[in-house]
């Protein structure tokens, strides 16, 4: 690991000013679970690390008057797992509690997972799946971006060099009546090979008013699928397999395509069952 200077700002504004001052040599560090690994492997070698650990208000969960859930970017997985989240917001707690191992969950943050933009990570997949909005602060002011527009590729995001992701906002509970997240991994501590999220809004009859299906891990960024609201799980699985990985010419891609098909079928079926019994 190359030598670096540790900077510990007290506010987001101070952190942004430090990023600006030190330019491309500066990197934000949250839990360090991805960044320190990359520094040890020397794929990155920042001269300055701007720590988010001392910034008040960047960690924790609050609720907006309309019920939207605001999760501070520096909130750890462990804190999310302990948070008493209601309705489908609780699925985020389940996602946070069912990844990696305890040391990673104790230090890794929701913002770090999004900014690392690894296609296998669970929280970015879930954020796109429920159509979460991200809050970003920078020298040019504050802005918001849907999670699906934030993730641009493996390790690539829409965040600027002197910007900080400050919060992830899950839409109000009434947005969805059922949310189901499923993933496939080889061993319990492995990252997912493929994950799927189904977010469903109930209609007046048996057919849902809206079904949002998102597949992650199989491609560089999560894919949101146009699935007919009345589609069965089997049909949604077929649509997903054909559109996410259309050219499955080798064994590994065919394997992933089967995972896409199966996980989408399961999430859609489970979401439809939940909305039926809600
Ligand atoms: C052994 C192991 C197993 C794992 N298994 C899983 C798994 O099964 N599922 C899963 O989803 N993930 C898994 N992970 C990944 C883990 O979720 C991420 O490493 C972690 O969430 C990253 O968060 P962090 O706070 O540690 O980020 P850091 O490592 O501190 O930062 C990551 C990147 O994001 C930037 N950054 C961080 N926060 C901000 C911010 N607020 N604003 C702007 N930029 C920011 C940093 O500059 C850096 O580029 C695993 C990691 C390890 C080490």
From TrEMBL:
Source organism of the structure: Pseudonocardia benzenivorans
Domain of life: Bacteria
Pfam families attached to this UniProt entry: FAD_binding_5
Designated name of the protein: FAD binding domain-containing protein
Domain FAD-binding PCMH-type span(s) in chain numbering: 1-175
InterPro entries the UniProt entry points to: CO_DH_flav_C, CO_DH_flav_C_dom_sf, Diverse_Substr_Oxidored, FAD-bd_PCMH, FAD-bd_PCMH-like_sf, FAD-bd_PCMH_sub1, FAD-bd_PCMH_sub2, Mopterin_DH_FAD-bd
The entry's keywords: FAD, Flavoprotein, Oxidoreductase
């Amino acid at each position: 690991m190359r030598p670096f200077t540790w900077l510990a700002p007290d506010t987001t504004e101070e952190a942004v000013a430090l990023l600006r001052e030190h330019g491309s040599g500066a990197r934000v560090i949250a839990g360090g679970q991805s960044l320190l690994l990359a520094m040890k492997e020397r794929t990155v070698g920042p001269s300055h690390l701007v720590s988010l650990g001392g910034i008040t208000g960047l960690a924790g969960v609050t609720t907006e008057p309309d019920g939207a859930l605001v999760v501070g970017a520096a909130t750890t997985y462990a804190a999310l797992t302990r948070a008493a989240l209601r309705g489908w917001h609780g699925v985020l707690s389940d996602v946070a509690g069912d990844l990696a191992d305890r040391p990673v969950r104790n230090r890794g943050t929701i913002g770090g997972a999004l900014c690392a933009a690894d296609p296998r990570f669970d929280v970015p997949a879930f954020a796109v799946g429920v159509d979460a909005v991200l809050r970003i602060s920078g020298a040019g002011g504050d802005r918001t971006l849907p999670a699906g527009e934030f993730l641009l590729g493996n390790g690539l995001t829409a965040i600027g060099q002197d910007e900080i992701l400050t919060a992830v906002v899950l839409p109000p509970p009434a947005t969805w009546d059922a949310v189901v997240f499923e993933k496939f991994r080889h061993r319990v501590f492995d990252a997912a090979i493929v994950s799927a999220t189904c977010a469903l809004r109930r209609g007046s009859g048996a057919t849902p008013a809206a079904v949002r299906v998102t597949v992650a891990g199989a491609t560089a960024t999560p894919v949101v699928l146009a699935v007919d609201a009345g589609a069965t799980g089997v049909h949604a699985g077929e649509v997903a397999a054909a559109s996410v990985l259309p050219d499955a010419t080798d064994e590994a891609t065919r394997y992933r395509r089967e995972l896409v098909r199966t996980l989408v079928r399961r999430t859609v079926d489970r979401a439809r069952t939940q909305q039926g019994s809600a």
